[in-house]
Design a protein that fits this description.
Length: 363
């Protein structure tokens, strides 16, 4: 007997001779009719049980993604399916989906949104079909209907601030905020990696930092160690001795104004206006957390370090990804590359509350 799911659709199911077949419908009437149609002869049953509709595929894949990926990635994939099913009926058999049905949808997305947005949907749907080919029973057809030519893209280059603009913004920061900026520039870490950083990820004896990232194919967290250069070592040491709250996290909310009070002592999640405020005070063009990661890579590139070392510092699995940051690069050790970001100068001696301040420059 059909039952109604949380999304309002009806799940029909039939068991026969130890086999089970399920399919999703928009109405109870359709579900009952489908169940009745499957109570046929043995030959017809064998033929029917090999059919999977698109809705079944999407539901199974998204359930799997919810377990494996962070919320942002899961949401992105969910909306890709929602947009696709506005154009293509989700209840048709998977074997009937062809590139001829997919391409008009992708063209429409390019026209209404952008080539980049269209290709992003294509990537998510393509991955979903590949998953269905491997893990569904029965598997999806081997010819992936989403494996078609990408749409042309017109993407504006990512804005990377000049070095001097970063340090102008740095001058406007104080206390913990300065140490955060040091970690961003000297580790080229992502925002999430910065906010997840715990005190047990800092090895002051060996002068190294452990960064955890979930940006991997299977969605699991992985850690990698990076050297803690002198400027960062001094900054983190200062913060460890001066942090006003006890927490396992390195960077925590210590504001009590307005809505911040309820998050006091907890790790940061977003800091949405943090960089914009610093840039405004410094009088420079706004840039965000991720732009600093790109800035570190571009500085190392300009200093002559090649692809393998910059790939190591950025912790990319593939050099192709690093090439998206910088067209071509060179080779050296990670510590030497990162140490080249700091310089002993008169500015390094300028301290506010004993917190080190740094500038870029050549050795």
């Amino acid at each position: 007997m059909p039952y109604q799911m949380k999304n309002g659709n009806w799940k029909a199911q039939v068991k026969k001779n130890g086999k089970r077949k399920e399919q999703t419908f928009k109405t109870k009437k359709e579900a009952i009719a489908w169940e009745s149609s499957l109570r046929l002869s043995e030959e017809e049953w064998e033929e029917k049980t090999g059919i999977i509709c698109l809705a079944d595929w999407a539901e199974a894949y998204l359930d799997d993604c919810q377990e494996r990926y962070v919320k942002k990635t899961y949401t992105e994939k969910t909306f890709a399916f929602k947009r696709f099913f506005k154009k293509v009926d989700s209840h048709i058999a998977a074997e009937k989906l062809t590139p001829a049905l997919v391409r008009p949808y992708l063209l429409e997305q390019k026209k209404e949104r952008s080539g980049y947005a269209s290709n992003k949907d294509r990537k998510n749907l393509l991955a979903g079909w590949n998953w269905g080919m491997m893990f569904m029973n029965p598997p999806l057809p081997k010819d992936n209907p989403f494996d078609i030519q990408k749409m042309p893209e017109e993407r504006s280059p990512r804005y990377i601030p000049p070095e001097e603009d970063f340090w102008k913004a740095f001058e406007q920061a104080h206390g913990q905020d300065r140490v955060m900026l040091q970690a961003l520039i000297y580790l080229a870490c992502r925002r999430g990696e910065l906010f997840r950083m715990k005190w047990n990820d800092l090895d002051f004896e060996k002068k190294r930092v452990r960064l955890w990232t979930r940006k991997r194919e299977n969605g699991s967290f992985e850690c990698e160690w990076l050297p803690m250069v002198k400027e960062l070592f001094d900054g983190l040491s200062w913060w460890k001795n001066n942090c006003p709250v006890e927490s396992e996290y390195v960077f925590v909310c210590i504001e009590t104004k307005n809505f911040c009070a309820e998050y006091y002592g907890g790790p940061f999640k977003h800091r949405q206006h943090f960089m914009a405020t610093l840039c405004e005070k410094a009088g420079v063009k706004p840039f965000g957390f991720h732009a600093i990661r790109h800035l570190t890579a571009s500085i190392l590139y300009s200093k002559g370090f090649n692809l393998s070392v910059i790939q190591e510092i950025l912790r990319h699995k593939s050099p192709t990804t690093t090439n998206r940051y910088l067209k071509s690069l060179g080779v050296e050790s990670a510590r030497k590359a990162l140490e080249s970001l700091t310089v002993n100068s008169s500015h390094s001696e300028d301290r506010e509350n004993d917190l080190p301040k740094s500038i870029f420059g050549g050795q």
